[in-house]
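## retry 2 of 3
previous attempt timed out at serialization; input unchanged, resubmitting
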Amino acid sequence: MITEQGRILELLLSGAFICQITDEDAWRYLKSAQNSDKMESQLNVLNRTLATAADGDVFFAAYQALGESERKVLGGQFQEISSNLLPLVEWLLLVQQAAGNDVPVTQGSAIRLNELQSTIEDTPAYAEQLEKISRYRLFGSTSTTLDGQVKQIFKRLTDLGYLIKPNQEKQIYLATGKIEYLYEVIRFIDETEALSLSEQADQAVQQGSLL
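## retry succeeded, writing output
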């Protein structure tokens, strides 16, 4: 039987972002300095380190030492994240606008799919924006209906770990800590906007903790 430490180690090595929303037990485990030190020792054996985002509220595994193969992996990941930023940011802005909020979507934000869909249906500009977003390669919707487009976007965001659906009987989604990580990537790109994408990727790799 796998231990809690082993379970969390597997999650981290699989690329998971652990936060209070996605896995509260694992999050509480890692919030303990003693436990996080144990996890760090386990990860170090595998050339990984326990990294954090959102002021220590989101945990993930990053490479400890960077050789050529690690740099290639991280560079590829950064390029992929960068290419997906536009659809993700446009979706986040649409949700914020449709909800009439000044506050952006953050970890723990509840998104009620039915309410969001109704607002978008009643506002032609939102519906047009949604259709555009759904066509991005990241979401890949081929649906001609707003309902199909919304559901495809939410399915992909759930598959990618940005959202979770705690109760399968209810159409309520919660934003995870991976959203906070996304904001950190956006800030990083903003700070290095004068650089080309390849140079940004190289800097991100050098920082290590970012990916």
